[in-house]
């Protein structure tokens, strides 16, 4: 950590003055009049920041830059990365999604990806499980095995992770919501118990984000933002105490941005959530160092290449400042902004889908140059369905080629010091902070959601961006720009719903209910409802219910009965 406190600008004032005079001469004597008049333009791209860019960057764009604003990697303010040697010491975790289908098929996909060099598991849920329905509920019809794997009970976790060394492999369970985290992660823990694996040896992450549940989610039943936030914090408290190596929350900017916000809003909302979370955990008696060590973030990376690199550097520095100066954190690890990046799925086009390989590769490269800790590269066929095995392997190979063949990981923060990148990093940080201030003026993120601010922000962004696409201001090659009707479509494997899987899963669920002690399950569900109405930890009650054999849908109904329903604000798109 840099010990000096006074700011020392990198550039000599006389040098700055001289560069200013030289720049004026260059602009007036060398640069074409049209270029001079359009010296600053705003590049428009899908999910872009709409920050104007100069044609050329010089020290005049960062005249007050102090090297302390960058620092050294592994030291405050972590602009250049959270580890001193970054990818020289440990490459980014290659964490591809495991596809969709039966639990046995997903087990095979997990083991295949690990055999081909994946260094982490990324488990995605089917549409019924995401919405917390049992596979035999009427609402689950037609959704079982779509977009992910169905999970109804801890027995499903057993099958999904059969022969997978969960005590040695980092596992990300894409639970999305606090309710789903409270229900599904205990199934993973009970599965580990049955194998004799202590919880303190498990490594991985859950999402556990109340913004996902109350804003991004499209469901027939909601609980209120305050109740969802309470569950989020109960989950964090339980995991920090009982599963110390597990990231107890992943503030999910990714799905919010893909749903319909700018990259600035994505990061401001995630930081606002993190601030309220750390504050609440302090109220519960857990200091920022204890909590901060296991907080993680999840970002969407799109096509504004240098904007994405700068955004990641900016939010890493800003999170350090929040933890260091707002919460008085002392442990360096609690100030690290650990993050997983997924390349933008909404940026993929159905037209000329092979172009998506190029798009995702640039998104991935930006994430690596920005200093992500783990990465998922979307597959070219995801505009049609969940990725095929071949496409998923190609996405894994994309990461491996960048890591093994390009040498971009040999230098830490290779774009650091660029006049352009540093100016853009400063501007990104300022904009994120401005939006964070706006949220706090509304009373914090929970209040902002209750008042409809975030729903309104999403509504405005979607309408504005869609119009720019229709008008051709945002150009998508092969879709609304340089589209060629003569390009031959490749043969694509498209995932189809397996009706047999739905009936097989429902039958297995009925058999499980017959084997268990249903009276004990009922007692556990009653205790869960009482916990929701009281002050005890909700995840602890969910673990008891899972041990007894309670299903996801049964626990969801207990939540709804205890908390009651909440109606999100409605907007016309």
Annotated CATH architecture:
Alpha-Beta Barrel
Write down the Rg. Answer: 24 Å
- CATH H-tier superfamily: Methylmalonyl-CoA mutase
Shape: globular
Q: Name the average pLDDT.
A: 95
Counting H and I runs of at least 4 residues, what is the number of helices?
21
Tally of strands: 11
Secondary structure: elements and pairs:
Layout: H1 13-29, H2 33-37, E1 40-41, E2 53-54, E3 93-94, H3 103-115, E4 120-123, H4 127-130, H5 154-160, E5 170-173, H6 178-194, E6 204-206, H7 210-216, H8 225-242, E7 246-247, E8 249-252, H9 253-260, H10 263-283, H11 288-292, E9 295-301, H12 305-326, E10 338-343, H13 355-370, E11 374-376, H14 389-405, H15 419-441, H16 445-450, H17 453-470, H18 499-515, H19 518-533, H20 538-548, H21 552-563
Parallel strand pairs: 3-11, 4-5, 5-6, 6-7, 8-9, 9-10, 10-11
Antiparallel strand pairs: 1-2
Helix pairs in contact: 3-5, 5-6, 6-8, 6-20, 6-21, 7-8, 9-10, 10-12, 10-15, 12-13, 12-15, 13-14, 19-20, 19-21
């Amino acid at each position: 950590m840099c010990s000096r406190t006074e700011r020392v600008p990198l550039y000599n004032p006389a040098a700055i003055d001289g560069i200013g005079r030289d720049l004026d001469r260059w602009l007036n004597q060398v640069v074409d009049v049209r270029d001079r008049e359009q010296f600053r333009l705003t590049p428009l791209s899908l999910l872009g920041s709409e920050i104007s860019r100069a044609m050329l960057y010089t020290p005049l764009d960062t005249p007050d830059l102090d090297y302390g604003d960058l620092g050294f990697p592994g030291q405050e303010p972590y602009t250049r990365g959270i580890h001193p040697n970054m990818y020289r010491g440990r490459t980014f975790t290659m964490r591809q999604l495991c596809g969709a289908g039966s639990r046995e098929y997903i087990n095979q996909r997990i083991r295949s990806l690990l055999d081909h060099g994946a260094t982490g598991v990324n488990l995605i849920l089917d549409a019924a499980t995401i919405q917390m329905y049992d596979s035999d509920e009427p609402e689950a019809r037609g959704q079982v095995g779509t977009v992910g794997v169905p999970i109804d009970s801890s027995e499903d976790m057993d099958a999904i992770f059969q022969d997978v060394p969960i005590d040695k492999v980092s596992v990300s369970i894409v639970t999305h919501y606090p309710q789903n985290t409270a229900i599904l992660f205990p199934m993973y823990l009970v599965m580990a118990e049955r194998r004799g694996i202590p919880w303190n040896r498990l490594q991985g992450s859950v999402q556990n984000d109340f913004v996902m549940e109350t804003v991004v989610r499209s469901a027939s039943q909601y609980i209120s933002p305050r109740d969802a936030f309470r569950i989020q914090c109960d989950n964090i408290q339980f995991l920090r105490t009982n599963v110390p190596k597990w990231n107890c929350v992943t503030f999910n900017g990714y799905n919010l941005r893909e749903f319909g916000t700018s990259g600035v809003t994505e990061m401001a909302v995630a930081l606002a959530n993190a601030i309220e979370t750390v504050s609440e955990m302090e109220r519960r008696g857990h200091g920022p160092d204890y909590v901060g060590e296991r907080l993680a973030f999840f970002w969407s990376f799109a096509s504004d290449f240098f904007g994405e690199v700068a955004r990641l550097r900016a939010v890493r520095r800003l999170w350090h400042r929040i933890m260091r100066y707002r919460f008085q954190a002392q442990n360096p690890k609690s100030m690290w902004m650990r993050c997983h990046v997924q390349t933008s799925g909404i940026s993929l086009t159905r037209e000329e889908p092979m172009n998506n390989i190029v798009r995702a590769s640039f998104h991935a490269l930006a994430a690596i140059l920005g200093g992500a800790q783990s990465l998922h590269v979307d597959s070219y066929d995801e505009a049609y369905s969940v990725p095929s095995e071949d496409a998923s392997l190609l996405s894994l190979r994309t990461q491996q080629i960048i890591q093994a063949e390009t040498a971009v990981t040999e230098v830490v923060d290779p774009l650091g010091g660029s006049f352009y990148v540093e100016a853009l990093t400063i501007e990104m940080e300022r904009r994120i902070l401005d939006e964070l201030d706006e949220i706090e003026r509304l009373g914090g993120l929970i209040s902002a959601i209750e008042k409809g601010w975030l729903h309104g922000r999403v509504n405005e962004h979607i309408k504005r961006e869609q119009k720019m696409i229709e008008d051709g201001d945002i150009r998508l090659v092969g879709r609304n720009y340089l589209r060629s009707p003569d390009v031959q479509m490749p043969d694509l494997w498209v995932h189809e719903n397996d009706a047999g899987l739905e009936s097989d899963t429902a039958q297995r669920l009925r058999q499980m209910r017959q084997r268990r002690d249903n009276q004990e399950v009922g007692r556990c569900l009653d205790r869960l409802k009482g916990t929701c109405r009281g002050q005890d930890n909700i995840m602890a009650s969910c673990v008891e219910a899972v041990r007894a054999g309670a299903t996801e849908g049964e626990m969801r109904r207990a939540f709804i009965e205890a908390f009651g329903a909440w109606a999100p604000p409605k907007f016309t798109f």
